[in-house]
Amino acid sequence: MKFRKFAFKLHLYLGLVVGIFLAAIALTGSLLVFSPEIEQFFNPQLLQVIPQSERIPLENVLQIVEKAYPQNQALSILLSRSAREICKVSMLSKNEEVVSVYVNPYSGEIKGARLNKETFTGFILTLHAELAGGEFGHVVVGICGLVMLGLTFTGLVLWTGWRNLARGFSINWKAHWQRTVFDLHNVSGIVSVVFFILISATGTAISFYTPFESALYWLTNEKPQPELISHPYSGSSRQNLDEILHQVNTVWPEAKTTFISLPLTPEATFKVRKKFPNDPHPNGISTIYLDQYSGEILRADSVNSASVANRILNSLYPLHIGSYGGIYLRLVHAIAGLTAIVLFMTGVLMWRQRHLAKFYRKEARQQYEKLSPLSQQWPWF
C-alpha cells in the first residue's frame, strides 16, 4: 500500500508539472505521422506533377537549381517516390537556413521553394522535437520522454484492472461525470500502454541519440563504422550524379534509390540511401558511400546485414512513427498521441475535483470548530 501511495503521488505530480508539454509533444507527433499526406493534400500544385515518358538527367536538375539559387549550397536530393511526385533539392542559405526547392523531374521546371521551418512539417517538427526552444528545448523534450515512461509505469501500478479485470477495461457512461472521467482515464491509459512505452522509449533515444549510441555500442561490444573520406587528385572534379546513380544501381538492384546526400567538403563522400521492400524506414536506411571524384564504392551498409547495435539504431525512427506496420499502425500511433491528450485533460479534471473536495472539507471542519460545544453535539440546536 505504501508503494501504491508513492506511485500515486509520483504519477500525480509528474502529470501536473509536465503534462502540458507532453500534450503538446503528443499532438504534434500525431500530426507528423501523417505529415506527408497532409502536405500533399494542401500543396498538390507544388508537390505533384503530370507523369511523362522520360525524366531529364539528375545532374541537370541540380544545375538548374544551383543556377536559380547561386547564393545557396546544395545539401541533398530527395528523389521522386512515384511517377507523380516532384524531386526535392535541399539547400543551405547564407543565413544558415535550410531551403527546399521543388523541381519537376520531367521538365526541370522549378515549381517553388520554401524555407523548411515555414512548411507545415517543418513548423510542427520544430514544436515536436524542441518545443520551439532550440537546443535547450531539445533536451527538455528528451526529459519529457523519460517522464512519460515514469507516468506509464506508475499508471500501470495504479490501474484498477489488477483487482478486477473487467472493471479495468470498462467505462460507466451513465454514472456521475466524475466516475466517467476516472474510467476514461483508466481505460485510455491501459489500452495505449504498449504504444506509450514504445513511443516514449524511442523518442528519448532519438533526443539523446549520441549518448544512446555510445551506450549501445558499449553494451553490445561493437564499434561504430569508421568515417570515410574521398581522395582528391590533381584536376579532379565531382562525379556526375547520373554516373553515381548508375553505380549504386548495380548494388542491391531490388532496392529503390531514394535519397542522395551531396559532398559539402573536398574530403566528403556521396551518401546514397536505398529502400528495400521490407525496410520500414520511409526513405530506406541502407546506405552506399562513394568517393566523390572516382565514384568508387567505399562501403555499402545494408539494413538486412547490419549488426545488432545498428539494427536497433536503424529501428528507432520507424518504431517511433509506426511505419513498421503500414498505414494501420501509423494510424494507431497517431491515435495513441491523441490519447495522451485525453489522459492529461482527464487527469487535470480529477486533480481539480480532488483539490476542491479537500478545500470544502477543510472549510466545513473550520466552520464546525467555530460552533459552541452544545452545537457541536447537537448540530441542529
Number of helices: 14
Strand content: 5-15%
Q: Tell me the strand order in the biggest sheet.
A: 4-3-2-1-5-6-7-8
Tell me the major beta sheet: 8 strands, antiparallel
Provide the residue-averaged pLDDT.
92
- H/E element string? HHHHEEEEHHHHHHHEEEEHHH
| CA-based gyration radius | 28 Å
| Unreliable residue stretches | none
- Which outline best applies? elongated
Straight-line N-to-C gap:
42 Å
Helix and strand composition category = alpha+beta
Helix content: 40-55%
Strand segment tally = 8
Polypeptide structure, described:
- Helix 1 (2-33) crosses helix 13, helix 5 packs across helix 6 and helix 8 (177-191) packs antiparallel against helix 13 (326-370).
- The two termini are 42 Å apart.
- The model has no long low-confidence stretch (mean pLDDT 92).
- The chain has 381 residues and is of the alpha+beta class.
- 55% of the residues lie in helices and 13% in strands.
- An 8-stranded antiparallel sheet has the order 4-3-2-1-5-6-7-8.
- The protein is built from 14 helices and 8 strands.
- The longest helix has 45 residues, at 326-370.
Give a topology summary.
Layout lengths: L1 H32 L1 H8 L1 H4 L10 H11 L4 E6 L8 E6 L5 E6 L6 E6 L4 H11 L3 H25 L6 H4 L8 H15 L1 H15 L1 H12 L20 H8 L7 E6 L7 E7 L10 E6 L5 E5 L6 H14 L4 H45 L2 H5 L4
Antiparallel strand pairs: 1-2, 1-5, 2-3, 3-4, 5-6, 6-7, 7-8
